[in-house]
Write a structure and sequence with these properties.
Oligomer: single chain
Structural class: alpha/beta
Strand content: 5-15%
């Protein structure tokens, strides 16, 4: 409740002062206050409240009463501003008295007397200069977080512009680390390029969808026709499309924590509320089923699972999936399953698609070629609608509408789906002993867990490790600051746990795509960093 009160008042104060999140981050930097994008996003969304020093800064920056902002009293008076009512809005009669005052709707009215351009008025009187209209991003983006390409990455880009070399362990992009697309895939795309100059149908080329349908059959996914398959410019586009088609303002969707942050961002952008259920590190990072049950309300529409998981590398066994299906069945939830890493499973284990266990539920299963075939830049993914489609007819019409609006996905990339999914799968050689991904996982897991104060659950799939930091040992209270400090000291780019909607400042994600010799150098640098690093 305290978080919601603070978030409401913070948004009111920001609106009254005409400040956006980026303005507060800039002001904090100017005053030497550590305030990151992920922190301010969490404050605005009500997920957490700031420490006393951050609260003091925010009150000063927004020229408002600190106790009112914190919710410790009902009324407050911004410094140098009109008196505010208990709900945080300006009192009547005070809203248009002087330049810089705020109106009843909370917006600034400077220059309004002169018909300012920014307020859409007439030209200013002769001798009065018109103020220039400023274009700002939509407020719908205020609570959207995507730190996989966020402030830490921005700092890395700045360092590179200054001529520094940065080792990028922040994003699962195979090509820069020497992984090559299978020759047959390149050959077949070249052969078909002249046939790919026009649009395809909105849901994709017949040959691509046929191959995907047959792949779904091999995975045991029930009740799938060729019309139930949509290709996309990567899975990312399709996630956005699905969230936009499903969620009304205030609808809730269950998303894992930690998550791949695009899920939370797309749900938020669509007007929905991302409700995070915990994945339990003590139980191989499997979803906490009791936590899922606790967080279901009458507004919950769907549950998302990411299996194999990014960022943890976990692989969910059939027993866990069956229990998730039963929860979805009891509460009549739709299931979204992100399975982009389903062909990158190690240790002789087998991936099970949750849709194969839920023929009576409506499921949407996502996959693609970006990771398994090392062609992230080709942007080719797909989604499969399966199970009880009768209960989702209207939703499927919404998907069709949005798919038609984008005309089609990348046609040359669609043209090689049939080649990629058929015949020899070169990725299999990477994920067995002696293969690059397997050996790199073995090395980085041991190298990082040998560092005092660092522990980890060994990943079983994908190419990510999500180590835990002993925050008491290193006095870490801000994981984004940790990532920035590591970047500046050792020129290694990692993403902090908060970037994956993990609330505690005690994790970070490592991408282990580089060769072992590169990972060895990185691990030694990280070990040296932790030998002296302390926050505070």
């Amino acid at each position: 409740m305290a978080g919601e009160i603070f978030a409401d008042r913070l948004r009111l104060a920001m609106e009254a002062q005409g400040k956006k999140q980026v303005d507060l981050i800039r002001m904090a930097k100017e005053r030497g206050v550590k305030l990151g994008k992920s922190q301010i996003s969490q404050y605005v969304s009500g997920k957490t409240v700031p420490r006393a020093d951050i609260l003091h800064f925010l009150a000063q920056a927004l020229e408002t009463d600190e106790d009112w902002l914190a919710g410790r009293k009902a009324e407050g008076r911004p410094q140098g501003k009109p008196e505010w009512r208990p709900d945080g809005r300006p009192a009547e009669g005070n809203g248009q008295q002087a330049e810089g005052n705020v109106r009843e709707d909370g917006r600034k009215v400077e220059a309004e007397r002169y018909g300012s351009v920014k307020n859409g008025g007439d030209s200013a009187p002769e001798g009065k200069e018109k103020s220039m209209r400023e274009f700002k991003k939509s407020t719908k983006l205020d609570n959207v977080l995507y730190d996989v390409r966020g402030p830490v990455v921005d700092e890395a880009a700045r360092m590179e512009e200054e001529g520094m070399q940065v080792l990028k362990l922040n994003i699962g992009n195979p090509a820069p680390f020497g992984f090559r697309t299978p020759d047959e895939v390149i050959h077949d795309m070249r052969q078909q390029l002249t046939e790919c100059e026009g649009y395809s149908t909105a849901n994709g080329l017949f040959s691509a969808r046929k191959a995907i349908m047959q792949y779904a059959q091999l995975k045991g996914i029930p009740n799938v026709s060729i019309e139930d398959i949509y290709t996309g410019n990567g899975v990312s586009e399709l996630i956005n499309l699905c969230m936009s088609a499903l969620l009304n303002d205030g609808d809730e969707i269950l998303i894992p924590s930690p998550d791949y942050p695009l899920w939370t961002a797309c749900a938020t952008l669509a007007g929905g509320k991302a409700v995070h259920y915990i994945c339990d590190e003590q139980a191989e990072w499997y979803p906490d089923l009791n936590d899922i049950r606790k967080k279901i309300t009458d507004r919950t529409k769907a549950i998302v699972i990411i299996n194999p998981n990014n960022p943890t590398g976990a692989l969910y066994p059939k027993e866990i999936l069956l229990q998730i299906v039963e929860i979805a069945r009891q509460h009549q939830l739709m299931i979204f399953s992100d399975e982009i890493y389903d062909r990158l499973v190690m240790d002789g284990l087998e991936h099970v698609s949750i849709a194969s266990l839920a023929p009576d539920l409506f499921c949407v299963t996502f996959s693609g070629l970006s990771k398994s075939h090392m062609i992230a830049g080709f942007r080719i993914g797909w989604m499969i609608l399966s199970g009880n489609k009768r209960i989702a007819r209207d939703y499927m019409e919404g998907i069709k509408m949005l798919s038609n609006m984008r005309l089609c996905s990348n046609v040359p990339a669609q043209s090689i789906v049939q080649t990629a999914l058929g015949g020899h799968q070169s990725v299999k050689s990477y994920i067995v002993p002696g293969g690059r991904i397997y050996d790199q996982r073995e090395f980085i897991f041991k190298a990082l867990t040998d560092i005092p104060g660092i522990s980890a659950v060994k990943p079983k799939a994908a190419f990510y490790l999500f180590p835990k930091i002993d925050v008491k040992r290193f006095n870490i209270t801000d994981d984004e600051k940790f990532a920035l400090d590591l970047l500046r000291d050792k020129k290694i780019l990692l993403i902090h746990g908060g970037g994956f909607n993990w609330k505690q400042p005690d994790h970070f994600r490592v991408v282990y795509l580089p060769r072992v010799e590169v990972l060895k150098e990185a691990a030694e640098s990280i070990a040296d960093f932790f030998s002296y690093y302390r926050q505070g």
